[in-house]
Amino acid sequence: MEFSSKFLEKAIEEIALLPGIGKRTALRLALHLLKQPQSQTTDLAKALVDLKTKVKQCKSCHNISDKELCGICANQSRDHSIICIVEDIRDVMAIENTEQYKGIYHVLGGKISPMDGVGPNQLNIESLVDKIKTGKVTEVIFALSSTMEGDTTNFYIYKQIQASENTLKTSTIARGISIGDELEYADEITLGRSILQRVPFENSLKN
Amino acid sequence: MEFSSKFLEKAIEEIALLPGIGKRTALRLALHLLKQPQSQTTDLAKALVDLKTKVKQCKSCHNISDKELCGICANQSRDHSIICIVEDIRDVMAIENTEQYKGIYHVLGGKISPMDGVGPNQLNIESLVDKIKTGKVTEVIFALSSTMEGDTTNFYIYKQIQASENTLKTSTIARGISIGDELEYADEITLGRSILQRVPFENSLKN
What we know:
44% helix, globular, homodimer, 207 residues, zinc-finger (chains A, B), alpha/beta, 12% strand, 2 domains, 4-stranded parallel beta sheet, Helicase, Ruva Protein, domain 3
């Protein structure tokens, strides 16, 4: 497609680099911005640059943060002896939204995936092991996705922390049928596991 | 949803102002940018600001342009006596892509639509009528979409230019069954019109 303005062309090119946005959507977005007040575009541009230059990683849990320590790690009323291991900061947001968890997190930044060239050294595993070695941690919760890569990562970390600390409690989040789901539509593996790992009926009354 | 960084929150807020992008997509885009090299974000931000501050409207046809006159209006090898009236600059691009049209354009910037509060004065109709009044235009092609608003706008402009110029030829783009389409799936109005406005068979051999 030919454009009558090289600035429009450049803007479309840059917008189309974003995931899930093609040239046509980029054109639509660029034309939309052209019709809006200039402040919207400058605000957007400033917010993007600020995002990239001012957002840091929490030095303790690798969650994103504006300060050295994120709000969760800095909060002394949370239980710092329980660490929930997640893949991504979106998982932190998802768990925080449930308002059920009062421990702290550790964001790995991905899963071990040899196919994508991601090994243990690319992930924030060393700092996790160091944190556990201090002896202040009593429980580690694995909350990675239940894919082959997730299981591999879980197992790798499990081996690492088992070697360093024997009295540590480890757990994974419960897998089972979603609340509100019909059994007949559930996949066999999930349904099978939900029967094997059944819980006392009294427990289901708690929440 | 709570965010651990106010810069992330601000970026998401600004991105989500774009049409068709919700908070979740905005979050995905923001996290994507965080993982990319900084140059991508600064390039994107610069391209957006350049788009807004440097792109002008062609003073003759209202197409977007980097200069006073757009490339099409400035091109003397094009036929300046034929004007194709379109709604939007995307329509200019679509027609230019066919490489079948050698006249110039006039971009209205919308359609008359009282429901959306768009009257003739909000559109670039006056400059079109002025251009036609110079007497240098021999044909006007209406290429608006065939909706009620498009038809209304066509008719309004038709009345305006009829009053000012009697020898002017007017035409609309041909409506009919798309090339490659099956007749049985075509809508009745299009199919009916394509029979009423049938063309000599020899014409269909030309292209």
